């Protein structure tokens, strides 16, 4: 069952049980739901769960600490709590890493040019000129005599904006 970027759902798990085991769809869905409930109940009781060749679920106690609101910078106490942690088994890690390290298909070999010699790539020829040529800087525009640039007006010299309110 290929999921190509899709989230694996309970329905997907139930469908896989239906296809592999042959249980009716409704019983496969009940089985998946029962397994997930047992995991949750065990965590509620504070128990660790170990699934061979898959991994283990557990609880970690986090102590009280000080945090900050990133928007305001205000100091906010973060209360102590328990968090659920999952640690993948070495078998699962190895399987995932094996699928990630599959060899990549090599690029097609360069085909020979019309003369029978392989075409040279621009990177291979070190004597090739760079593709981007720097242009000389543009000279400053000459101003007309007597038309010198005026400095911008300061805030005190600006005229006040007209008011939209009318005086009564």
Describe what this molecule looks like in 3D.
The model is unreliable at 108-113 and 121-128 (pLDDT under 50). The strands form two sheets. The chain has a three-stranded antiparallel sheet. Strands 3-4 form a two-stranded antiparallel ribbon. Strand 3 (65-68) and strand 4 form a beta hairpin. Helix 1 packs across helix 2 (25-44). Among the domains are: 8-47; 48-64 and 77-101, HU Protein, Chain A, CATH 4.10.520.10. The relative contact order is 0.06. Helices cover 26% and strands 16% of the residues. The longest helix has 20 residues, at 25-44. It is of the alpha+beta class and 168 residues long. The protein has three helices and five strands, in the order H-H-E-E-E-E-E-H. The chain has helices spanning 10-21, 25-44, 90-100, and strands at residues 49-51, 55-62, 65-68, 75-78, 81-88.
CATH architecture of the domain at 48-64 and 77-101: Irregular
Discrete helix count: 3
Q: In percent, how helical is the residue content? A: 25-40%
Number of strands: 5
Helix/strand structural class = alpha+beta
Short synopsis of the structure:
This protein is of the alpha+beta class. It is built from 3 helices and 5 strands, in the order ααβββββα. Among the domains are: 40 residues; 42 residues, HU Protein, Chain A (Irregular), CATH 4.10.520.
Write the layout of secondary structure elements.
Blueprint: H1 10-21, H2 25-44, E1 49-51, E2 55-62, E3 65-68, E4 75-78, E5 81-88, H3 90-100
Antiparallel strand pairs: 1-2, 2-5, 3-4
Helix pairs in contact: 1-2
Throw out a few tags for this protein.
alpha+beta, HU Protein, Chain A, three-stranded antiparallel sheet, two-stranded antiparallel ribbon, 5 strands
């Amino acid at each position: 069952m290929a999921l190509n970027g899709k989230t694996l759902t309970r329905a997907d798990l139930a469908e896989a049980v239906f296809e592999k085991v042959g249980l009716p769809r409704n019983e496969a869905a009940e089985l998946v739901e029962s397994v997930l409930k047992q995991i949750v109940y065990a965590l509620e009781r504070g128990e660790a769960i170990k699934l061979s060749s898959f991994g283990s679920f557990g609880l970690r106690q986090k102590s009280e600490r000080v945090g900050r609101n990133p928007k305001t910078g205000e100091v906010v106490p973060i209360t102590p709590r328990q968090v659920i942690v999952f640690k993948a088994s070495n078998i699962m890690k190895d399987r995932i890493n094996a699928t990630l390290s599959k060899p990549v298909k090599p690029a097609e070999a360069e085909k020979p040019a019309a003369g029978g010699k392989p075409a040279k790539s621009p990177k291979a020829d070190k004597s090739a000129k760079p593709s981007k040529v720097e242009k000389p800087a543009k000279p400053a525009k000459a101003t007309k005599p007597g038309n010198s640039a005026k400095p911008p007006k300061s805030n005190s010299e600006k005229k006040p904006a007209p008011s939209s309110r009318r005086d009564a």
